[in-house]
Amino acid sequence: MSSNHRCCAERRLLDTWVAAARRHGVPAHKVVPWVRRKLGPTVVVLRFRNDGSLGCSVPCVLCQRELTRFDLQVHCFLGAGASGHGGTADAGNGTGQWFSGRLSEPGAPTPVLTAGQRRTLNLDPLGRPTRKEGVGADGASPPPQQQKRGSGKAGKQKYGKRA
To answer: Composition bias, kind Gly residues: at what positions (predicted)?
Structure first.
């Protein structure tokens, strides 16, 4: 399965299996075990660069949440860098760093934010929250304003004459 501009391949794969479970009439509380039984316990995530070499294939935040929900073991390429992220040296001959295990285990790679997730979550490229509208320089936000709620019956009469 390949990814597109809207969704990563991992989530598309899981969504396809969830849709198949629904078509087979699997109740909602049994979908996760059904998908695990049909898909198997392991998912291999590979991403290739334009030159054909392996790129960093650590799942994004949303994919990591879904893979953890389905309790799947993940095999992914971390890269050849010392920190395990971003490096592609020697990736073509397979000597880079790999991760194999569940994403909920200690030592699992930190999820990578996609550009769309950074925009949606209002994060700058370094992962810090951006300054929001209405927030002062000292970080204090203005007090929230409450909405006035009516009883819902103001000006309405079901029966009778208007005054």
So the answer is: 84-95
